Amino acid sequence: MADNYLEKKMEEHRRGVAAVASSRKLSPTGSRRGTVALRIDPLRVFVTDAAPEVGQAVVRRLREAGCSVAFVAENGEEAVQLARSSGARFYPRNVAGGAVADLMRQWRGIDAVIITDGCWPDGVASAGLKRVVNIGSDAELPDVAPGDGLTVNAISTRGITAADAAEFCLYLCLKSSSFIDRRLFEFA
Q1: What is the pLDDT of residue 167?
Q2: CA 188 from chain center: how many Å?
Q3: pLDDT digits (tens, 9 = 90+) for 148-180
């Protein structure tokens, strides 16, 4: 029987009607074709305000990527729900001053700060910071002294969606993006 099967397949092949096995083609990295896979080291990220839509998108996207995220927002049901659904740490605005000190005790450092409200958080300068991203409609480069491996960038949200801004923010936080420094990204 095996001989008949092989003979039949050989005949089909000669006639050009051999069935092509459909399998999902993978790239050399193991991801599907047409996708990009980036390695994300576990980051400890502090978001200064998750109240605006962009801040919420940033918190969600960073958590989806496996980052430890803490954020400040007005004490309300929306902020509590964001913390519950994303798994991020929530600090009410009235106790935000102690957030950095608490995160330093819990995480032993902060890798990135995402500024969504234009305010630089107190006490974060000595946190072993590697990335600072200022994000918002009127974003400017934060006035932060360059440090050992510290990159500082800004993203204007005019002309892009909150999800796109969050994705770009994640990219700027990656170790592999450390060559991007002192840039203001504006979209039309």
Answers
A1: 94
A2: 22
A3: 778 999 999 999 999 999 999 999 999 889 999
The span from the CA of 150 to the CA of 164, in Å, is: 23
Of the chain, the percentage scoring pLDDT greater than 90 comes to: 44
Q: What is d(CA 188, CA 184) in angstroms, rounded to the nearest whole number? A: 13
Q: Check pLDDT > 80 for residue 144.
A: no
Encoded tokens for 79: 């902020």
CB 99 within 8 A of CB 71: no
pLDDT tens by residue, 31-87: 666 776 667 778 999 998 887 899 999 999 999 999 999 999 987 889 999 999 999
Helix/strand/coil (H/E/C) assignment for every residue in the chain = CHHHHHHHHHHHHHHCCCCCCCCCCECCCCCECCCCCCCCCCCEEEECCCCCHHHHHHHHHHHHCCCEEEEEECCCHHHHHHHHHHCCEEEEHHHHHHHHHHHHHHHCCCCEEEECCCCCCCCHHHCCCCEEEEEECCCCCCCCCCCCCCEEEEEECCCCCHHHHHHHHHHHHCHHHCCCCCEEECCC
Among candidates 88, 117, 89, which has minimal Cα distance to 102?
A: 89
Q: Which two tokens stand for residue 37?
A: 């896979």
Q: How far apart are CA 122 and CA 100, in angstroms?
A: 7
